[in-house]
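Lines hold sequence, tokenised fold; shown next:
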Amino acid sequence: MNSHLRIALGLAATGVPVLPLRRGKVPFGNCPTCAKNVCGGRPNMKTPGPCACPHPCHAWAAATTDPHTLNSPQWATAWRTAAAVAYHPGGAGLTVVDLDNAEAIGWARESLPATRIVPTTRGEHWLYRGAMQGANGVRPGVDIKSTMAYARWLGPGSGTMAALPDVVRALIVKEPAPVRPVAVAVPAPAGGGECPHRTPTYLDRGIAMAEQRITDASSAVHATVYRTFLAVLSTHGRCGCLTEAHTARLFTAAQAKGETVRHCTDAWTNALTTLGLSHV
């Protein structure tokens, strides 16, 4: 039996989903049926799960614990030419902190709880119990390999595996992008009269209510942000009340709910267009 297949079957028997890697430590390319992912391959989707294709041609999503699949004729050629064995950490309920150099290892020793360590060619894999979303480049020389990712099998390592700490989960949480408020250009009141909304109390109360409406949204955040922007502009968009400080408050509230600057800008622009203010 091929040595890589023997290792893979041993791992699969312990509940670790495995797949072959070709030269260069990369997965096998799509089979003719799945070329250019016309099959809707799982790696292009937003949820983890096995690939329905009988060939090992979908990277992490091809990883399996099924010995019949691993021994199938569709996988035979891959195992004969495989350069290494990989596994899907998230599928095994694990997270790998991939430390690519000495500086990254030094950071881990100072910042992360001790756990099982597997030496790699250039650094170390620190393994934790618990799965999370994988991400590359979370800091210099550090990648996270867990859900929807694969890691090369380099042996069991040494040390007692610890539970996945919050400090590792926090590595993939991005800081909110700085708010770039959209300046609202609206016509002055007809005849140059005083704006009826220019009293600080009325305007501030309206902006505060709009912020709260966005903050309280528990679902359909995109739609809530758009409707709120539309309501603010329908009341204050034609008289010149709104300033960049007001739009910044609305954008900040939206970004705190996960909206990007682009989403905010698009929603604001669409609201202006709906109200016939986009030409100004």
Observations:
- The two ends are 73 Å apart (CA to CA).
- The beta strands are 18-21, 84-87, 94-99, 116-119, 124-129, 135-139, 142-145, 151-152, 162-163.
- Confidence is low (pLDDT under 50) at residues 183-193.
- The CA atoms of residues 186 and 237 lie 6 Å apart.
